[in-house]
Amino acid sequence: MIQEKNYLTIKNNGTNELIIKKSRFITTLVRTNTIAEADQAIAAITKKYRDATHNTYAYVVEDHVKASDNGEPAGTAGVPELKALQLMNLKNVTAVVTRYFGGIKLGTGGLIRAYSNSVTEAAEAIGVVKRMQQQKVDFHVAYNKFDEVQHFLTNEQIFIANIDYGVDVNIQIFIDEKVRTVVENNLTNLLAGQITFNLGEKRYIEVPITEHNYHSQ
Where's the UPF0029 domain (predicted)? Predict the structure, then answer.
């Protein structure tokens, strides 16, 4: 199973509640990187709310998806929750929507809207981040080229992890995987080919998504 290098997910685990026609819809969102973690989250939340009328769920874990109506009419709970996650382009997230029936029936359309909106509003309340994989790159530059290189890196908003001053200046940077080749080519041109890149470890950074248009991410 291949982990996507860049993807959207929730900022952290959290819960959000809606009251719709006297029914309580408690949505719990959990970051889950494996199906086993998703199953564990569903079991734990279902146990916590074992007195609820329904504990419905949906998850997107890597390229796997699953949904359950847990006793609600078929297609009115789990699938709308799953579609809400997919419309927001969220990955590695498990949603459990717990319902305490308030005595007023919502109908098929009302249930679909309630479960879908519960997930969307929970994600927006908790927050969404973009996880981006970056590569650490080390290289040396002569002192008389350092200011020029530093100016380039600053303009390109490339994170400088460390600078060591020795015979030359040793610079460690982290670059988003999808632009690494372009950045390396630009640095090579800037230094007239007098540069060698050494690759280090990879890491993920998380950037908050402040807009509600997740489709463009």
Answer: 140-194
85, 86, 87, 91: CA torsion to nearest 10: 70
pTM recorded for the entire structure: 0.81
> Of 81, 82, 111, 85, nearest to 21 (Cα)?
111
Q: What phi-psi label fits residue 154: left (phi over 0), alpha (psi between -120 and 50 degrees) or beta? A: alpha
Cα 128 vs. chain centroid, distance in angstroms?
A: 6
Average pLDDT over residues 112-141: 96
| Domains of the chain and CATH, by start | 6-126 (3.30.230.30), 132-208 (3.30.70.240)
What DSSP element (H or E) covers 111? helix 107-126
Sign of the four-CA dihedral 63, 1, 91, 216: negative
Quote the tokens at residue 32.
């889950």
Residue partners of 209: CB distance under 8 A and separation at least 6: 8, 127, 128, 129, 130, 217
pLDDT bin (cut points 50, 70, 90) of residue 217 is low
Element (H, E) at 127: none
pLDDT digits (tens, 9 = 90+) for 159-181: 899 999 999 999 999 998 888 99
What separation, in Å, do the N-terminal and C-terminal C-alpha atoms of the chain show? Answer: 22
| Cα separations in angstroms, 114 against 18, 51, 124, 184 | 9, 20, 15, 49
